[in-house]
Design a protein that fits this description.
Layout lengths: L3 H14 L11 H13 L4 H15 L10 H17 L13 E7 L5 H16 L3 E5 L7 H11 L4 E2 L6 H14 L4 E5 L8 H14 L3 E7 L5 H13 L3 E5 L8 H10 L3 E5 L7 E3 L2 H10 L3 H11 L2 H12 L5 H13 L3 H7 L7 H19 L3 H5 L7 H11 L3 H26 L9
Parallel strand pairs: 1-4, 1-5, 2-3, 2-4, 5-6, 6-7
Antiparallel strand pairs: 7-8
Helix pairs in contact: 1-2, 1-4, 2-3, 3-4, 4-11, 5-6, 7-8, 9-10, 14-16, 16-18
The structure holds guanosine-5'-diphosphate.
Length: 441
């Protein structure tokens, strides 16, 4: 829901800071910082965040808090408006004024170009009563044309293809075919490469000259995050795009990078892909995206869980020891106990923003959590406090047989611990040099 996460963050800092009836430079400062962090966590581009914050500030300072609303509600409304503003306010419809109109789809391999081409054809047929023709021009990726034909057949959209014949020739024939058979929209599924290369751009430019498309749409994978901006700019420099389709927004992608496209490239997002199925393509609505970005997934639930379950004193003790550069297996064991108190580790890992964690990684982490705990239970406190004692073979063998685990697992634990300890020492150094705020000093 809109603003779930941000709302709570804002509410708290505003209740603390705003006691007067006017929003001022000072009393909104902390709230602005919260908003800034939340946006960065959502993968919004730094420049866009700066712009947003300065606009929000401009609109907020000096405002009287209106009757019947709380200060944070009023501010949230402004944030929402500014997000929508930066996303482009209006829905950007396709220009399909020619007969037949040509929509050229371009993008990197794997971005979802072929899938989006058939989704778009389906959308235009169903929602706009068009008679689209799909054209298979990707003669390089093996199976690309077959894939298009299959998708077309499945959804009753005719597909024009000439196998491996030159894409330029095929495109020309496709336009003739479309005119003769009364197709009003021709969708060109062009070739993609793994990277932007000159040959590809030359071919696409030639295609553009021959077919003069009404729309040249870049298909980008929403999962690539900030990289979207570079890819879009490069394609746009070469091909003069008219818009962007962002795919795979059904996955973990939070949409923050999507938010940045309009501001950073000046191109409208025309559609978004939200699944593999043929109907999983929707026109882009800035308001919906703003809601989604402010929603911030389940991070708030995560915070609640952490606060509920972590034994603060034991945490503080561990933190203090870490700060002193001390970290042993006993500390690790205490941490693992805290983590398992929080319940299912997979659920916790999945709630992290921006985390792309596979089920394999989760079950691996879950397994390690259990195995490591068992192994450490079989150690004496002295061994946990002085892990170097574990170099002794007799001790090792005793722990292995006592725990019923393997030598490999014990070594895995020791290695993970050594690695973790190094990181802790790094952190301790950073804390001491004052580069990490808010730590005990
Ligand atoms: P192309 O090389 O650009 O033509 O890429 P494809 O159209 O073959 O898509 C690559 C993969 O991404 C396929 O497995 C698609 O099913 C998948 N895909 C495309 N769009 C979406 C989307 O919006 N959501 C999800 N989850 N998968 C998608």
């Amino acid at each position: 829901a809109f603003g779930d996460f941000l709302t709570k963050r804002m509410k708290k800092s505003m209740e603390k800071n705003i006691k007067k009836s006017t929003l001022t430079d000072e009393n909104i400062q902390e709230t602005l910082r919260e908003i800034r962090l939340a946006l960065l966590e959502a993968d919004v581009n730094v420049e866009v965040v700066k712009e947003l914050i300065s606009k929000i500030k401009e609109k907020t300072v000096g405002e009287y808090i209106q009757e019947g609303v709380t200060s944070h509600q009023q501010m949230l409304k402004i944030v929402h408006e500014e997000l929508i503003d930066i996303l482009g306010t209006e829905k950007a419809p396709l220009n399909l004024s020619k007969k037949p109109s040509v929509v050229m789809m371009v993008g990197l391999q794997g971005s979802g170009k072929t899938t989006s081409s058939s989704k778009l054809a389906h959308y235009l047929a169903k929602k706009e009563a068009k008679k689209p023709l799909l054209v298979g021009l990707d003669i390089y990726r093996p199976g690309a044309i077959d894939q298009l034909v299959e998708l077309g057949n499945k959804n009753n959209i005719p597909v024009f293809e000439q196998g491996k014949q030159s894409p330029l020739k095929t495109a020309k024939q496709a336009l003739e075919f479309a005119e003769k058979n009364g197709h009003d929209v021709v969708i060109l599924d062009t070739a993609g490469r793994l990277q932007i290369d000159k040959d590809l751009m030359n071919e696409l430019n030639d295609l553009r000259k021959i077919t003069s498309p009404n729309e040249t749409l870049l298909v980008v994978d929403g999962m690539i995050g900030q990289e979207i901006i570079n890819v879009t700019n490069e394609f746009n420099n070469q091909l003069k795009l008219t818009g962007v389709i962002v795919t795979k927004l059904d996955g973990d992608a939070r949409g923050g990078a999507t938010l940045s496209i309009r501001y950073m490239t000046k191109l409208p997002i025309k559609f978004i892909g939200e699944g593999e199925g043929v109907s999983a393509l929707a026109p882009f609505y800035p308001k919906r995206m703003a809601d989604r970005i402010l929603g911030m997934g389940d991070i708030e639930t995560l915070f609640e869980k952490v606060v509920d379950n972590i034994d603060e004193r034991s945490m503080q003790k561990t933190m203090k020891r870490m700060f002193m550069g001390q970290f042993d297996l006993e500390d690790l064991r205490n941490q693992l106990v805290q983590v398992s108190k929080m319940g299912n580790i997979g659920g916790i890992m999945k709630m992290m923003p921006n985390a792309k964690i596979s089920d394999n990684q989760i079950s691996d982490a879950q397994r390690k959590l259990v195995v490591f705990s068992i192994l450490m239970d079989s150690m004496t406190l002295k061994e946990r406090r002085e892990p170097k004692l574990l170099k002794s073979l007799t001790r090792k063998n005793r722990i292995i047989s006592g725990s019923g685990r393997t030598e490999k697992e014990l070594n895995e634990l020791i290695n993970s611990f050594e690695k973790g300890k190094k990181q802790v020492l790094e952190m301790a150094k950073m804390m001491k040099s004052g580069r990490m705020p808010g730590m005990p000093g």
